């Protein structure tokens, strides 16, 4: 039996993500929580003739407690999205508090669940979650993931003309670092199968992966950011976590983790100087079973990109940790 919960289930990401989870045969029970509209979203999705038994919850009547109790996996797309002209860091003020509230709920009602954080800025919201879980004495770094799969999905899509794959997802391209602008680093040199990117196209391709989110924000013209592609990416990552939990071997996904708490991660933390970083991670029944160090094989150009990424990430991570340290005592 697998129970999944979506927090922020009525939103632009939450609704299509909940649809994908509802039709997945891997999930037996699905709980949808949001501060608004979950009765309608749940009523609608509950008519779909698929395996998952689905219920919607609001904050009233202990909704968060009911949504989270017994959950094996919690996916969090709650929080405000960007508008043109904003950075993901501009979302911190509002979203840090939302993530704090929801992680406090997880501490109380399902501290052993896998936690998948989509809410931006991921570079800071994941450290916020880690710090809260740590303070509560329930932090299992193998169970906490910042979802950076959309960066991988974009890289696969944008290199299709060079990968020659009819199905772009067949090209495995590790994307490492963080999830905002220059902290995102596609390692095209590590693609499998190998790519032949013309030298004069390389910089534009890297830039497109790093700033793909801005393309969508601009096109949506003030009405939000990526929702449908993110639902696809969030579902792909959640499905990988669940498949590994159920015993499937050999699943590897890049994800933003607390490196010192995951086997083989401490060496990467030492080499980069940051504790939180997205790297390819082997998933197992207990979550992140091993961080895979591919940074040493990066090209000179990729190492320059990594240096820029690390510089940016340090401030984002520190900001998340400080937020929890300075939070008023509960
Ligand atoms: N990690 C990524 O790659 C990635 C990609 C796209 C978007 N995002 C981020 O995901 C977040 C959500 O984006 P969206 O487009 O779905 O936004 P949205 O505004 O459409 O939906 C957010 C939902 O969160 C709900 N919410 C707010 N506070 C809540 C709380 N305390 N508890 C439960 N639910 C709450 C809202 O009611 C709303 O339904 C944003 O922060 C966005 O930047 C991340
Ligand atoms: O760009 C955004 O703000 C949303 C998301 O992080 C994305 O990469 O599309």
Automatic annotation (TrEMBL):
Substrate binds at residues 82, 88, 120, 154. NAD(+) binds at residues 8-14, 34, 95, 118-120, 230. Residues 148-324 form the Lactate/malate dehydrogenase C-terminal domain. It is an enzyme of class 1 (oxidoreductase). One of its GO terms (cellular component) is cytosol. Residues 3-146 form the Lactate/malate dehydrogenase N-terminal domain. Signal peptide: none annotated. It catalyses: (S)-malate + NAD(+) = oxaloacetate + NADH + H(+). Homodimer. Belongs to the LDH/MDH superfamily. MDH type 1 family. This is Malate dehydrogenase.
